[in-house]
Amino acid sequence: MRESGVLAGIVLMAPDIEVHAILWKRGPKRKLPRFKVFARMPVGTGDRGETSFGMAQEIERKFLVKSDGWREEADEGTRIEQFYLFVAENRTCRVRIKDGETARLTVKTGTGIARGEYEIDIPTSDAEALRVARIGAAIEKTRYRVPLGKLTVEVDVFSGALEKLVLAEIEIPTVDHEVVLPDYLGREVMGDPAYTNARMALDGRPHGDTSS
C-alpha cells in the first residue's frame, strides 16, 4: 500500500509547529483516503519574517471592495475553489485548486495581520480525494491581480453562497509598511474573523454584510 508523505513532510520539516497533520493512504482496494490526525507543539516567530523553523510569514491587509474601479487594471483572473480540512482559532489547513488544473495544500498559524504559512503543491487527484475530509462548505471565487505601485492587490470576487461579496488583500513586506490605498477599497476587515475564508466556509456570509 502506498502512503502519501505530503503532510507528513510538513511535520518532519517543522517539528515545532502546532499543526494537525493528515496522512492518507491508498491501495488497489481503497479508493477513498483514510485520515489520521496527529502532532501538536508550540510555534515561535523569528526575526526575519519567518517562524523559528523556517515557515514563511505572510503579512497582509484585507478590505471590503466598494466599487469596480479596480477592473481597469486587473488581469484576466484565476478561478479558485478551496476547502478546509482543519480550522481552529489560530491554525488552519486548506486545500486550494486553481482553474481546475493545479492544487496546493496550505497550513497557516496565528491570527491578525502577520501569520505563519507553509505551502506545498500536491497533485490535483490528491486534492480531489481530500474532499471527503472537508469541513464546512467549499469557497468559490475568482481572484484578480491589480498592480499598486510595487505591491499587488488581489481582488476576490466570490460566487456560490457568497455571491456579490468582494474582498481585497494586499500583501506587504513588513507590518508597519505604509500603503496609499486606492479609492475602490472600503472598510478594512483584517481584524474581523468573520471575513476569513475559513470562517466563511464554516458560517457562511458574515453577519451584517450588505453585499448580497
From TrEMBL:
PROSITE patterns: CYTH. SMART domains: CYTH (SM01118). Coiled coil: none annotated. It comes from the Bacteria. It holds the Pfam family CYTH. Residues 56-201 form the CYTH domain. InterPro entries: CYTH-like_dom_sf (IPR033469), CYTH_domain (IPR023577), NeuTTM/CthTTM-like (IPR012042). PANTHER family: SLR0698 PROTEIN. This is CYTH domain-containing protein.
